[in-house]
């Protein structure tokens, strides 16, 4: 008998609630959960394909262990034993830095990815941490760290209430949003326009999002920092908006900011941006005049040469227009499983470059090193060379620049373990592959995305399908990996949850009860631990975080009417469609953790970067640059194996403007050779005026033509790996983020 079960969708940042139809252990259908407190029934084609993805026959169902050079199916004990033998041996022989850790994007879409990697890193003691952030949003973490003192204090546009939205380098109609969790982002944009609000999109392509907009500006890629600097300068010089006193009193460096931006007049930046000074002045005027407004930038403003400057300027504009931290502007969410707000005041601040990478001398940011530096850290001999690697939910061979080099570097590792459901371009190098179960068999709570959600709410779904025989829950895999990193395996590990999760719970409760400002001060941590409910280690940890969180019951000392008297896991389980916690509220000054206790408008590292931006005014722009794009039915590098999502317009083609096509002798449906720093690719051409002249676009995540992977559908239409055009030398220096957009290319027709 088919039944239904709820599952929060883990396939993009929108976190829609799904109602799955389940027959036995098979998901036969998925629709939007109309009663979900946040997504209200919305679903996209990826969510609708949940069942096909869940039952993809290419998913690994047993661990793989390399024996005699070949990966062979193995049991879990054998797999963990191999890890527990190899990793500690490397650490004892070559030191902690000899093991690197790579964390890929899906870690923010699983509970395991939120709960265990910090423990793994602590156990290994390595500083060689590389994540997808340095291919993505690290510039935003750095700018928030510098402005507000906390790299996670990222304001999100108040999508449902704003009167004016300026979207920069984001295409939420295809991506469904990022660092702005909003199920049905397209519907929310339409609602903004329907209530008389204004949508302005800045993108070198006329995207589906741009087509919804009142105004679309198509600047030259990579020039956003200049455009934003000119907007900020115009606001300061011509509009001088009156700031709400709560905000004005908390600013530090306004005068210095005005001086630092003086040279970025609309006239000065117009040629580099290829937008007229009048258009820039009009936009500044409209932004200043809007009753409420939010400025929001994403991939196209981050993975570019001046990514940190652009990310910083986005919030400078939110501040200068008085829109930071007010309804309708850009606000800081308050997630249910996050910490309770503490009174603001001088904090520890945010520091970059507390250590540097061994070979390239790249500064750390948020304890991470640039992913583009991974290959050289493996290749270059000497003390501290990476010889072992733990890769969790990561496919850097495709997602990071110069995959060919990384491919060769990975092949030379002494030991590599991948936690991945697929044998793909990256995991094929592993000595041990630990596959998580299909998503229907995992519980879900969004630890990461509720911190970026446009509405405070909390939801939790238990596994929709019981864990099938022979599989291990991903939390259990991570817990056993932590133990294996410490050399423990087999009979030495009777209960991984007990051994790994309970110490975390005890430590958190010990800290809480020792805090004189806590209502739980002086209580017995052991007694409190005994009050936790939950069927597993991760559930008990979730219960703890919810109870100690901003809406928590504080074990009886707290109260919140929305959560039925104070949030607990048990109360959340009673509300399977989630609990709405209301619209975002102002949170200043509590979020501030800068040393001054104020918003640092012009932090030193930013001031030191501005001369480089000024020199960009004089540079001659490249004739042709490349940008990426995303397709609604795709997701980075791992969703090309589902027939229901493949094909149609979801193809790896090079978009070329008709003028460029004519100039270069390219034809629609023909082929071209693209060449850049890292090499050449031969790709099919699609002539379209959705890209501006002087810009071509190729999506990422393709290039499934390597031997040894097991992706039968993807391999049939492999596409080309755009990141092979890069050699990894182009970086946003402050954040170590790869420049993936707006780099120069050359094009030639192929017969
Ligand atoms: N040129 C260019 N390159 C880009 C981008 C771009 O815009 N342009 N975007 C960048 C961005 S924003 C990102 S985030 C990165 C993403 O790059 P990565 O972090 O490498 O992530 P994915 O490509 O999504 O690959 C995810 C891996 O996780 C595995 N996986 C899927 N589900 C699970 C799961 O539940 N558990 C585990 N353990 N593994 C799972 C998949 O099989 C796959 O191997 O790519 C970046 N690369
Ligand atoms: N369907 C789908 N959804 C996804 C993903 C996916 O791969 N597919 N990936 C997920 C991930 S990991 C992320 S991080 C998010 C990303 O979410 P978004 O940032 O919304 O993603 P993109 O569609 O890459 O939008 C970036 C836009 O920036 C534009 N752009 C490029 N260069 C520049 C520039 O220099 N200036 C300006 N102003 N614009 C520029 C591009 O043309 C593109 O339209 O999407 C998530 N959602
Ligand atoms: S928008 Fe994102 S979260 Fe919602 S159904 Fe689609 S993939 Fe899933
Ligand atoms: Mo991303």
From TrEMBL:
User: Could you tell me which SMART domains the record lists for this protein?
Assistant: Molybdop_Fe4S4 (SM00926)
Q: Which InterPro entries match?
A: Asp_de-COase-like_dom_sf, MoPterin_dinucl-bd_dom, Mopterin_OxRdtase, Mopterin_OxRdtase_4Fe-4S_dom, Prok_molybdopt-oxidoreductase
Give the species: Streptomyces globosus
Return one GO MF term: oxidoreductase activity
Region named Disordered = 512-533
The superkingdom of the source organism is: Bacteria
Q: Boundaries of each 4Fe-4S Mo/W bis-MGD-type domain copy?
A: 2-58
Q: What is this protein called?
A: Molybdopterin oxidoreductase family protein
Asked if Magnesium is a keyword of the record, the answer is no
Pull one GO CC term from this UniProt entry: membrane
Q: Which UniProt keywords apply?
A: 4Fe-4S, Iron, Iron-sulfur, Metal-binding, Oxidoreductase
